[in-house]
């Protein structure tokens, strides 16, 4: 991304549209009328308009075939003259491979020469003691003694529970993926901030990157980037990079105009302006993006292990394959430990970036200027020598390791034997009375009617443009022959989102005012977000059998996280003066909650709902593993058949559902915000 | 081959002290590049692959294990990023394997000597509730179907089939043999055995798809349902078999487990190619080894080392020039 592109337009904020505030009177009869028409059509329309109920096969768009053919062309023929497209991607893979080998060498394999099993190790990797001491140092640098203790405890967990070797392999790919993701996201975000036309192109692409399930593009990634850790890193990047780009765009916009003016006044060149003025002053918000990249990269660990990344993800899969719940949980918790350590570190650095830097002693020798660096080097050398003298310090001896052994399997067994009947009864009530009827209902609806209703909702909430977008996207789902599976998807996600909100919003309300509870709850939701769902999915299958109910539990467990988080966020942001005023007027605490706090927090809660839907949709691929029949399953089947076209079409349908939900809810939230102000 | 690894400058000084060239030992005239064998997530495959890897190492080859998904690996085998996959089951991998070999970039290296068996299976305690088993005709009775039912499927019985991706034609089989059963597809192999474990703990009814070699038949007492034996005609020709109007009116095929790999292996490592083709173990050996790992808690590498020590004459025959 050079600076050679001409700037077509001056940087300008997009003008927010405000089309829906007119015609409030019309609104009153519009919806009842539309719904009545819809029901009439649904009940009696099948006789004269069969095409509206099941999309005619002859008119289907053969998108799967087109995409499959395009992918084949890219692999076999696409060429830039001197080199082919595959050469280019392979070249990129080789570039990514270099830092990965270095990280792996340091953390896991040691310095090797030669390849494969004939490789000779010249130097051992950093010992567990060294890594532990270095993370403690980093923790201390970022956030003082408390943080140092926390990250040491996290890494200590890895050592003691015998997860070290795998964890270091995983860490190696994370420390490579995260900087690349951050840098690429930053550059894309900067470009989008500078050139509005680029932003217009970028934003839809980012939407797709975040919402298309990873399984859908795994096959093309494997073909282009080769099989192994590099391909896994590329797949991780596609998934984890978008938040960084988005945060960058937002952060650049929110840099105060005074700072920009100052930059202009002192005569900064464009490059200086970007790197010396804008980026540093937005550092605070940019770190939020870094944090997101780290978390999302860790979410990918399981899937990455399916295409050769190895590490903890592989351990989780292999343990659950032999139904060793304890071993699966330990490996899963090791991922959580890594996530917690990296998350807290990056947050501490974010906070530190916000504070003015403490005066660094300008004088003094190298040692006093770089105390941490010197300490780290000393540790590396000292532990290396100590490791030579005492092998236990190099690699943690097996007899010191602990394990929960069969404890967790026994717990599940105990629940299973004693409570299965009760659980089965609950399952049957919910399944037979709620899930099955809803699934039938959604399956019956005429697609044409649903498309029309969605477009109408789009029009009411955001005007003609939104109506067109929503209408076209939902039509495309039908036109590519995905309607039936899409409806199962909507049913499964919809019901899960309802349950997630029913659990998450009250919990959020409770926790918003109780500091201690909120701290514990944060621990729980952090774990839920990073513990691979595969770990708890198998016990859930044991208790609730395979099928939609189990899938729903998995989705709810994951999607409840944003519902809680945004509710708390929204309530905590309510201006205390407004609450005080309410109390002075004699409101009861119930009235304060319902009439003031929840009302004011509604935009955040809606944003939480939006995120809950996104989280639910992103779990679809996992639920395919317990036997659902939705778009997630379609993507999974396409993966196992290496059918690029089929996978991407199904993946796009999921993305479309996500985009429709996102746009409608955001438009709704905007309207509420407008009305309030 | 020495791969230069660039390290941050500060480490470089320490590393230089001991960085020395070493030439990897390898068989004459063959490539010294590592042969990449794929590892999947089930124990039997890990054992098979590691035995092959150890044997190749004894012959002087460099070997690298790469973790890969069972079906996604074909993308890598076709491009030559991966070289050998030691277990491709006739029963679950045939389609993917055929598609890959049709490209000419993947080659079938022959049978491993193991036979994949898969069929409907039930725990031994279910015999009391459905006395006619293992004969498939017992399943036709209403009482039996009831015994295997759950509320959503009642009065029909519930049969837990493999993931949709495994194929297996169970829906067609139920139709053709007129069995009062509903086929539910588990999403993954792990989910399949989670349900079995759960039911077995409670001694609850279950009828599901099991395959061997696997630890499950060793851990749980039970039997395979005996369907009319599989024949090619039965699957293809409606007229053949018990039901004159439908295909699939018989049991599942039992088939070999194949070795497959990149077709470039033959030219790049001719000796290794011969060794891989010669590799051969049987179901009983493999079953015993899987049990040692999954049920007795031994490590794969220990079990493989035991096998290598006990079968030296056999594997040295594979790598004879």
From TrEMBL, chain A:
Main location, first listed in the record: membrane
Pfam families for this protein: BPD_transp_1
Residue stretches in coiled coil: none
Superkingdom assignment: Bacteria
Statement: the UniProt record of this protein carries the keyword Transport: yes
UniProt entry keywords in alphabetical sequence: Cell membrane, Membrane, Transmembrane, Transmembrane helix, Transport
Annotated protein name in UniProt: ABC transporter permease
InterPro entries: MetI-like, MetI-like_sf
Annotated transmembrane regions: 147-165, 171-193, 214-241, 293-318, 325-342, 372-393, 441-459, 466-483, 489-511, 523-543, 549-568, 605-627, 647-665
Keyword Cell membrane among UniProt keywords: yes
Domain ABC transmembrane type-1, first and last residues per copy: 163-346, 486-665
The species this protein was found in: Shinella yambaruensis
Sequence similarity: Belongs to the binding-protein-dependent transport system permease family.
Membrane topology: Multi-pass membrane protein
Location of the protein in the cell: Cell membrane
Automatic annotation (TrEMBL), chain B:
Occurrences of domain ABC-type glycine betaine transport system substrate-binding (ranges): 33-309
InterPro entries, A to Z: ABC_Gly_betaine_transp_sub-bd
Signal peptide: 1-28
Pfam family, one: OpuAC
Organism superkingdom: Bacteria
Family annotation (Gene3D superfamilies): Dipeptide-binding Protein, Domain 3 (3.10.105.10), Glycine betaine-binding periplasmic protein, domain 2 (3.40.190.100), Periplasmic binding protein-like II (3.40.190.10)
This protein's UniProt keywords: Signal
Coiled coil (residue ranges): none
Protein name stated in the entry: ABC transporter
Species per Swiss-Prot/TrEMBL record: Shinella yambaruensis
